[in-house]
Design goal:
The complex is a heterodimer of chains A (220) and B (278). Chain A is an alpha+beta fold. Chain A has one domain: Alpha-Beta Plaits. Chain A is built from 7 helices and 10 strands. Chain B has 278 residues and is mainly alpha-helical. Chain B has one domain: Formate dehydrogenase/DMSO reductase domain (Formate dehydrogenase/DMSO reductase fold). Helix content of chain B is 71%, strand content 0%. Chain B is built from 9 helices and no strands. The two termini of chain B are 24 Å apart. The chains are: A alpha+beta (220), B mainly alpha (278). Chains A and B meet through strand 2, strand 3, helix 2, helix 3 and strand 9 of A and helix 3 of B.
Chain lengths: 220, 278
């Protein structure tokens, strides 16, 4: 089995937001919708203050609360773990948005554009009315993953098969791959480093891992 | 350890969603209150109709909130796990049996509708409980609170209406007292369990509404009810005020719970990055 997962190395992320921009460019999301966000956290109190940049978005949970609550079955989970939304089924009730512990879901009730009421040329070309009034979120660029697999490429290794945010990361902080394959890039990273997942206590089994330190010598 | 962006109030569900919990709970409670005291209640059709109208208005309000209104029928697609689907299905059965009761004059079907109303308000409690993104909602005891406040509000509406109509009776009063006490117990349990689970800001807005519910929505109405029993000349106004206070404070608390106390939990980092280690 395959389970696509994202790994963010918190030691490497510099908060440049290039992943956010790449995601917006790739997915043509409207203003204020950021499927890939980078939180800028200031932790501690003077003089012991640390700044941490934390990429967040849909965690593609193995047990996604958004899918369980969805009354229309618009939210589904693929066999490879990617959580999807069928825009043609979604009624825009936003129940998934209040069920998501990661604030990863958005609902845009009316078209909105970067510069005023009218779209600029690129926005007009890529506007999708099907996304108005429904829930949207990060797709792990499943179209790129699927197209790449059809060409025999490896998601996470070959850029054409890899999510845009990962491709764009200037610090190699973001990684994508198959967490079920022990030889994959993400499995290697998880084996070599200490990691955590966000709000793990809720039992959602997120598919987004945060590396925070290397493993101690000899640690399993 | 929890750091980073502070929890913020969810904005996906607003007053329209709150109206569904408010009117749906009250309507369901009204149907149950009528069923409990049906044997001594004249004009039963009026209560049945009022209860269904309240539930219908609540559902209409939440329909106004959804993004794709013409697809509302899709709400029925996921009974396996979605409490919203179950709520909608129970509502259909409730309206079917209630309208049939009215059309054919069959009180027995009215009792079926009342039973379904209990299921309806239970679904509403579970809808909140399943919202894992909102700590104040996902607390399991929220279900008991939503059910009992629906019953207390409905019993309050029933008491006030029957007092106005001059048909108040002890069965309705007893149910009202029972529902009010059950609600305050459920609220106390829910609030106690929120102490370490919900955001401090959520508790800050819930507590004033909670105090109103205890004092104005429980203690004062019960005192009024006892006074009404002791002094029959005051029974009607006492019943009206008692019922409206129980109703209004329940509405206020649910409004706050949905639109003011629904903070998410923000983001947390159990570990901080150890830079320079790689």
């Amino acid at each position: 089995m395959t389970r696509w997962a994202m790994v963010a190395d918190l030691r490497r992320c510099v908060g440049c937001q290039t992943c956010t921009a790449a995601c917006k460019h790739t997915n043509a999301t409207p203003p204020e919708v950021q499927w890939r966000r980078v939180l800028d956290m200031e932790v501690g109190e003077y003089p012991e203050v640390q700044r941490v940049f934390v990429p967040v978005g849909c965690m593609h949970c193995a047990d996604p609360p958004c899918m369980h609550v969805c009354p229309s079955t618009a939210t589904k989970q693929r066999a490879d773990g990617i959580v999807t939304i069928d825009y043609d089924l979604c009624i825009g009730c936003a129940y998934c948005a209040v069920a998501c512990p990661y604030q990863a879901r958005y609902k845009t009730d009316a078209p909105s554009f970067a510069y005023g009421e009218g779209p600029i040329q690129s926005e007009a070309a890529r506007f999708d009315d099907g996304r108005i009034g429904v829930a949207t979120k990060c797709t792990f660029c499943s179209d790129r993953v699927d197209a790449g697999l059809e060409q025999g490429l490896t998601p996470g290794i070959d850029p054409q098969a890899t999510p845009a945010c990962v491709n764009s990361c200037i610090a190699k902080a973001l990684h994508f791959g198959d967490a079920e394959d022990p030889a994959s890039n993400v499995s290697q990273l998880l084996a070599e480093n200490q990691f955590f997942r966000m709000h793990e206590e809720l039992g959602t089994d997120p598919g987004f891992y945060y590396l925070w330190d290397k493993k101690a010598e000899g640690a399993a | 350890m929890s750091f980073g962006p502070r929890p913020w109030q969810q904005l996906h569900w607003d007053e329209r969603a709150a109206a569904n919990f408010i009117l749906g709970g009250t309507g369901a409670g009204l149907l149950v209150a009528w069923a409990v005291s049906a044997a001594v209640t004249p004009v039963w059709q009026a209560y049945l109709l009022a209860g269904m109208a309240s539930i219908g208005l609540g559902l209409g309000a939440v329909w106004l909130e959804i993004g794709r209104k013409l697809r509302a029928i899709n709400v029925f697609f996921h009974p396996q796990t979605s409490w919203m689907t179950r709520e909608a299905m129970v509502a259909v059965l409730l309206f079917g049996s209630g309208l049939a009761a009215l059309a054919f004059g069959l009180r027995a079907l009215g009792f079926v509708a009342a039973l379904l109303a209990l299921g309806f308000v239970y679904c509403q409690g579970r809808i909140l409980h399943a919202s894992k993104g909102i700590p104040a909602w996902r607390e399991p005891s929220v279900t008991a609170f939503i059910v009992t406040t629906g019953l207390a509000e409905g019993a309050g509406a029933f008491l006030a209406a029957s007092a106005v109509a001059g048909s108040a009776h002890r069965a309705g009063l007893a149910f009202f007292a029972l529902a009010a006490v059950a609600r305050v117990l459920a609220w106390s349990r829910y609030r106690a369990r929120l102490e370490h689970g919900a955001s401090r800001r959520a508790l800050e807005v819930l507590d004033p509404a909670g105090r109103m519910l205890v004092q104005l929505g429980t203690i004062v109405p019960l005192v009024l009810a006892v006074a009404g029993l002791a002094f029959s000349e005051f029974a009607a106004p006492a019943g009206i005020f008692a019922g409206l206070l129980a109703l209004g404070t329940g509405w206020a608390l649910k409004f706050v719970l949905v639109t003011r106390a629904a903070f998410n939990q923000g983001f947390s980092l159990p570990k901080l990055p150890v830079r320079g280690s790689r």
